[in-house]
From TrEMBL:
InterPro entries: DNA-bd_dom_put_sf, MerR-type_HTH_dom
Source organism superkingdom: Bacteria
A single GO BP: regulation of DNA-templated transcription
Gene3D superfamilies cross-referenced by the UniProt entry: 1.10.1660.10
PROSITE patterns registered for this protein in UniProt: HTH_MERR_2
Protein name listed in UniProt: MerR family transcriptional regulator
Gene Ontology MF terms in the entry: DNA binding
Amino acid sequence: MLGVQEAFLRSLDAAELVRPERSGGGHRRYSRRQLALAVRIRDQLDEGHNLAAAARIIGLQDELTQAHDTIADLHRRLGDDTR
């Protein structure tokens, strides 16, 4: 479905980047959000980054997106559409 090996997903679990729920039988159960994160990490690895760098890049991207959303919300609250 994602085009990655099961071992890749296990490595993300071992690195505590993606922590899936477990079924009664011990099988990993990933949420859609976790799978989307796994794809983002894979993309970073494909660009030549190591796992730690990929995680940091994605974290910074998410922080930047959140900051942009906060700024846009503040502009809306102030009635300021002149960005």
